[in-house]
Each structure stands twice: as C-alpha cells, then as structure tokens.
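Quick start: what a row looks like.
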Amino acid sequence: MESPSHRRDNLPVDGGARRYDYIDCIRGYAILLVITCHLTYSVPELPYPVHRITVFGWHGVQLFFLASCVTLLMSWNNEVRRFGAADARAFFVRRFFRIAPAYYLAAAFYYFVSPPPGGFDALQLLATLTFVNTWHPLLMPTEASRWLVVPGGWSIGVEFTFYFLFPIIAITVTSLRRALLFLVATLCAGTILNSVTSATLAGHYSDSAVDNFIYFWFPNQFPVFAFGSVVYFLIVLMARPEFAKARRRIARNSTLYASIAVAMVIGLAHLHLPHWLTLAPPFVPVFILASVVFAGFIFSLSSAERGLFVNRPVQWMGKVSFSAYLLHYVVISVLTSRLSHVLMLDSTGYRAILAFALLWGVTVPAIFLASYVAYRVIELPMIGYGHAIARRLTLARALAKAGQASV
C-alpha cells in the first residue's frame, strides 16, 4: 500500500491548483483502521459486538488501495497537463524508491526479530522482494508453515502489481464513463478468475489457505483500484466551473456525509457476507461494499475544509502510514506483552472495552513515533533520491524530443 510522499499531488480547481490535505488524512484513517484491527486480538474477551467493529478495520487496506489509485491518477494527469505526456520510466522509478527501500529493510528486520520457523528460503525471499508473492498460496503465503517475510506483505505485492499496470490504465481510463466500464470489467474478471482458481487449488492446499489466498490475490482486489478511478473522475467532474454550486454544497455538508459513511462502515461490520468475489450467491463480498462506502468517504472529504475529519493529527499519521504499516506489528507485539497485566487485557465485558481503549491510546502514539523516525531517516531520503532520478529521466526525454523536433 502506498503512503504519501513529501509532496502532494495537485488537482485543478476553478482554473488553479489546490493542495489536498485530505489525501494524507485518508491514509491516516486507513492505517488507524489496520492498527485497530490487529489490536483486537490482543484483547481476546472483547465483547463480540465491539469485536466485530474493531476487526472490520481489516478493510483499511482497501482504503489504502482507493487512495493510491486516486493520487496516482492525480499525479499522472498533472504531469500530462504540464508536459504533454507522462513518463512511465520516471513513474516506476518513483514508485520503486517510494516503497522498496523501507520494505527491504523491514524484511531484514523481521528476519532477525522473528526468524522463519522453517529456516531461510531463498525462493520465498526472492518472490517477496520482487513483489510477485501474491500469485501462489505458498509464496503469499497462506499456508501457516511457510515463511512470512514481511507481515502484511500481501498488500505490497498487490499494490506493485497495480503499479505495473498503472501506465496502461492511466492512458486508457480517461473519463468517468471509462472508469465505470473499467470497474465492471474488473468485477467480472475477478469473479471468474476467483471461481476458476479456487476450484483448481482445492484439494492441493487446505481450505483456509485457498480461501485466504483468493481474498488476498490481485484479481480479487483489482476492483478496489477501479473504484478509485471512479472517485478520481468524480472529483475532476466536481472541479468544473459549472459544478461550483454543487461543490460548495458538498463542502458545507462534508462532515455530515463523512459521518454517514462512518455509520455505514459500522453497519457493514455486522453483516455476514463472503470476503471474495464469487459466482455463487450472495455474490457481493463485504470488501466491495466497504470500498463503495470508502469511495463516498473520500469524495466527501475532497471538498472539505479543516475540521472534524481533516485535521493535523490524522494528516501526520497519514504521512508516516507506510512505515506505520511495516512497523505496527512489532510495536503491538512488544506493548501487548509488556502491558498485558498492567492493562488487564484478559478482562471481560466493559472492562475489556476499557482495556482495549487504553491499549489503543498507548499503542497508536508509540507506532507514530517509531514510524516518524523511519519516515525521516529512510523514506524521505529514498523518496528524494527516486525523484532526482525521475527528473533526470524526464529531462533526458524532453531533450531527446526537442532534438528530434529540430531535425
């Protein structure tokens, strides 16, 4: 999952350029959802209705995917408007240096902190470091005996697969109508591929391994990115002068709309639906419904001013969200083991809810501090290095075109 870079993408509004703090906030909410989900298991007796809500934070990953597509389309089309075309090579360089350095260091860190039970596996490591670990149950891995090189690494593999396809998507998906067709195509493809692949893998791997793999792999998650393209073109549509009145109305009521989205997420947490696209009823998995609600949440914040949902604490959490995603597993593990007796994490009933709230209040700041250090020391220098290389590539391309034009 992509995290915000040191610069924000611009979108033309009323003929000018505006910077969007809400993008960082979206990622901030995404990582807070993921952290909340993983903290749930530290309080085993959390009352079931509360457990259902907190564990739904699992779908914060889909919020990351949506934000990724929206911001990448903003950046790509901004480059097209400025230079007449976007440079795919520069795009890949920026994406690699944005994600890979911190991800590779996390792989080394977790190897020493939590050595693989089966020993070092070169193929598993290579699959993870080349971001193809989401294409087989043994590489993901969803078989419990396999080496999990980086906890949560499945989403990084999905994200990079999207990066590989993104230049084609950006060139072909150029309107709201095409974005909707793109969404329908990904939903159909995911449904068919999921059904065929699950039937193929059944009998070769455990039911849980197959079920989890189908949920995690790219064809199942691809429609979430497609939802992101729909949100992007809706934001672009609302930026037109003729929609100024509607945009102001949305801005005035953005807090209400975002609050409704939050309420709907809480409601979805209590639905029992499948978690991957399938040809069997009820067909629509819960993560697709969550993505629809998250899309509305992003759209409502796109016109919002600073306030309840767009604020500096969440914005800063969003800035460090990639490091937080990589580090929160170990921070949760350490704090849970140290604070288990102090916070009485084995409590039941209302005391369990209080224990969870206290644990959340301690853990989130700790994750932020650790992630801020990683962001400053690792992420920002590598982002800057990647952008420097990308600028040289873009300049070389521009000079080459100028030379061809002068011949």
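That is the whole record. Residues 91 and 390 are 7 Å apart (CA to CA). Residues 2-18 have pLDDT under 50 and may be disordered.
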